[in-house]
Amino acid sequence: STSGQIDGKKSTAAWTVVEQKNVGKANETSLQEQSILEVEANYTVYTGPIDEFFNYAHGVLPYRSLRFEFESFSAEQLTKRETMSGKKGFWQPTFLVSYPGSEEYTRTVEIKHATGQQCDNTTVVKDYPEDYAIGKDAYYPVPAPDSEAIYAKYKAMTAEHPRVSFVGRLATYKYWNMDQVVGMSLVEFEKLRKIL
After folding, report:
1. Which backbone phi and psi does 66 adopt, to 5 degrees?
2. In the chain, pLDDT over 90 holds for what percent of residues?
3. Which distant-in-sequence residues (6+ apart) come within 8 Å of 53 by Cβ?
4. What is the pTM of this model?
């Protein structure tokens, strides 16, 4: 699942795999417009919020949301920062810098570190924590005994959907590091490749 804007409307999308002459085809379906349970597909891999999948039958699970702010810097600004960044043409010394202290944002990301892009300017993205509500993007589950009890009810409901895989942080309601999510996805792919 992914969230974003489609035709100017907020949408969470579930990606379904449709077998057609041994070629997979992605079909994006807005959960606001149609229940994922109504989508005709040979198989669905769902990575969105599990409570949303089941139309909040047991209530809304708590999540943490984020807000992103982009700030671009000119070559002149970067020259003044060179002693802090340690590199010509960069704002910060590494791809990601965490701010666990008193700043309003929790981290900054300078994508240029990862892409190897050569240019005189740069853009830094700041992550600001936000409260979650239906209609906002969920990024991280908030583990607590009461939310685990609600998740257990949703997890039990997944048994009724053998042609759906629930993969990732939101669908399994667990904080996974990204390398773990990639590993989980590859394991699921290998399983599905044998049956589809």
Report:
1. -135, 155
2. 68
3. 14, 31, 36, 46, 154, 166, 171
4. 0.73
